[in-house]
Amino acid sequence: MRRGITTFILLVVVVGGFGVLLARNAQPVAPVSAVLPTEFHPTENPNLISELLQQNLGENSTALPTVAIPTTDPIPTQPSPVPATATLISAQELSSGLPTEAAIAISTPTLPVAASTITDGTASDATVQAVTPVPVERQPPPLIPPISRDPLGRDHYWFQRPVDSNANNAVLSYYSFGSDGPDPSNPLRVHHGIDMPNPIGIPVRAAGSGLVIWAADGRQQEAATIFQNSPSYGNVIVIEHDFGFKGQKLWTLYAHLSASFVQQGDIVQAGQVIGQIGNSGRVSGPHVHFEVRLNENTYGTTYNPVLWMVPYVGHGVIAGQVIDREGFPVMDADITIRSRTTGLTVRTTTSYVILDTGFDVLSDPNWQENFAVADVPVGRYDVIATIYGERVIKQVEVREGTTSFIEIKPADPVTPDASATPAS
Ligand SMILES: [Zn+2]
Predict the structure, then answer these.
(1) Strand partners, 175
(2) How far is CA 411 from CA 314, 325, 390, in A?
(3) What's the gap in Å between 1 CA and the centre of ligand 1?
(4) Measured in angstroms, how far is the CA atom of residue 334 from the centroid of ligand 1?
């Protein structure tokens, strides 16, 4: 009997203990404090991007695309491995002296979205931090700059890439350097840089060593010449490099940042993290806008960064001139790069748009191109250009770490053969 009581007490203790454990485990877990990027709500409307791009791009704005990258875009993107807002420096801190303007630049929706184009009704603020959570295709490592493998010495891949290989390094194809956007009937401001859409918080790195000459909001008075007094750059860093090209100075520019880790006057090394991807300024989604400037640090002295930024291992660049029969450059020609091995289109772009505004984009001093596409895998390609409605195809071979140049010009019309004319 006594043994029975002991067993009963033991049973009560064990069962009770389990109960306490269960109750403790059932308590809700404390919420994780990290704030992750807003989930991207894909739209069914394929025209959303171009509609967004066409809105509110006024005289004073560099047009800036990159809403959520369209899911059909071949560019892979990497969901942020970084808690998006955990370490951000506020815009006020970044732009000391003009806190209210900076705050406005970031908080004001710049591209209102027509309600009819939104499927879920939540994305009316176009500055929504949308990223495309598609599986990322990891890039191979970049080559080590500076390199110049062209036998004639024309290449100048002096710069590292501004974002890491596990982030999205691909250049936004529908708004490439010198392009006026995807819709010919509603052109955007010609693009003076390249855009790499990435989630907020992804590190941005110095493309080369040098001196930080600007690290603040781009609208401050003393920045007028650098940025054309444009509000569109948002928080921006400019590095004056400690090396040049043909005796001229070089600058790189990184815009729309959410944070800057450097200050004016800092010396930075190539690859040093200088800031973070953001959506400050006039944007419709987070990205870094990257420019290369030569000889003068102005909006009117920008060159195509894909001819300066080192390619990946196993990849090269195609640059060329699309010209008409008289040899004049053809603007805004659609260009398709198609693999001769697979028959698949690997890149599309358009030729530069030159409007004689006094600050047009410039052709490379060595290549004199009017188009260039980055990161083409080594191989043989058809380059197909539409020149005033006529399709012209040229073949090109891409070699690693160098630029393959191609001239695309319509064949001369077939002239009647005089000898074939019957003698009278
Ligand atoms: Zn841009």
Answers:
(1) none
(2) 33, 7, 10
(3) 86
(4) 20
Taking a 5 Å cut-off on Cβ, the residues next to ion ligand 1 are 193, 195, 289
CA of 177 to the centre of ligand 1 (A): 8
- The model's pTM is 0.69
Q: Token pair 């495309």 is at which residue?
A: 132
* 318 secondary structure, DSSP code: E
Query: DSSP string covering 158-211, please?
Result: -B--SS-TTS--SPPGGG-TT---S-TTSPPPPP-SEEEE--TT-EEE-SS-EE
What is the C-alpha separation between 95 and 65, in angstroms, rounded?
Answer: 23
List phi, psi (to 5°) of 378.
-55, 135
SS3 204: strand
Q: What confidence tens digit (pLDDT) does each residue in 324-335 have?
A: 999 999 999 999
66 and 195 Cβ atoms separated by less than 8 Å: yes
Q: Which amino acid is at 362?
A: L
- pLDDT, residue 256, reads 96
Cα–Cα distance measured from residue 286 to residue 299, given in angstroms and rounded to the nearest whole number: 21
Query: How far does the centroid of ligand 1 lie from the alpha carbon of residue 197, in Å?
Result: 10
CB contact at 8 A, 288 and 319: no
Phi, psi of 122 (to 5 degrees): -105, -10
CA 123 / ligand 1 centre spacing (Å): 22
Of 300, 281, 327, 383, which is closest to residue 65 (Cα–Cα)?
281
What is the Cα gyration radius of the chain? 27
Instruction: Read off the pLDDT band of 155 (50, 70, 90).
Output: very high
Assign residue 100 a region: left if phi > 0, alpha if psi is -120 to 50, beta otherwise?
A: alpha
Q: Which of 68, 78, 79, 73 has the alpha carbon at shortest distance from 43?
A: 68
DSSP type of residue 36 = P
